[in-house]
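Notebook p. 47: complex prediction with coenzyme A.
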Amino acid sequence: MLKGKLVLLRPVQRTDAGYFLKWFNDPEVTQYLGMYLPMTEMAEQKYIEELGASKAATDAPFVVEAIDGDKSKPIGSIGLHRINPKDHSATLGIAIGDKQYWSKGYGTEAARLIIKYGFEQVNLHRISSSAWSFNERSLRLHLKVGFREEGRRREAVYINGAYHDEVMFGLLREEWEKLK
Ligand SMILES: CC(C)(COP(=O)(O)OP(=O)(O)OC[C@H]1O[C@@H](n2cnc3c(N)ncnc32)[C@H](O)[C@@H]1OP(=O)(O)O)[C@@H](O)C(=O)NCCC(=O)NCCS
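Predicted complex, structure tokens below:
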């Protein structure tokens, strides 16, 4: 478990399927994630089961819980994906699925915790990420935690009736160490 002041990150459990179903069937959330088909209970269960098998070596997924005194409650998910042991690289994914918790610093702290984990525990050299160009909160979060914009895949995604750029980000370990 990774613990900060606002959030803790803990491993995924089978009982999280209900949260994932709620968050990843909410169009206000999924517009930022490139998901556009209904998320079925079967697909969620399969995803969770695969975390215990083939994906176990390349994915480090966590549930984000908001800390409230002695208690905490699930508000989203975050993970390092496609962990590559040759290049020492991985890709960040983050979604605060409970909209009540948007723009209150929870995502930023969760990202900082998983980045620290990626560099200090997984021994990564580089973390990649991306966000749609209209996702102001995510663009801001990436820059705040130290990512640099590396380019744009122009009009790469079609969402809500229009094409948008995908903004590509990268964070190297040495850059992150200077920020600490
Ligand atoms: C993107 C996401 C992870 C950000 O987490 P969060 O907890 O909401 O964001 P934070 O409060 O930590 O930081 C957001 C920053 O964006 C800023 N912001 C919020 N709305 C903004 C807007 N409309 N324009 C510009 N900046 C904005 C905030 O002020 C804050 O920056 P600051 O600390 O410098 O003031 C979260 O909103 C989320 O999961 N959204 C839905 C799914 C998603 O977009 N996932 C990411 C896919 S790349």
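Notes: Residues 2-179 form a domain with the Aminopeptidase fold (CATH 3.40.630.30). The chain has one domain: 2-179.
Next step: compare against the earlier run before touching the bench.
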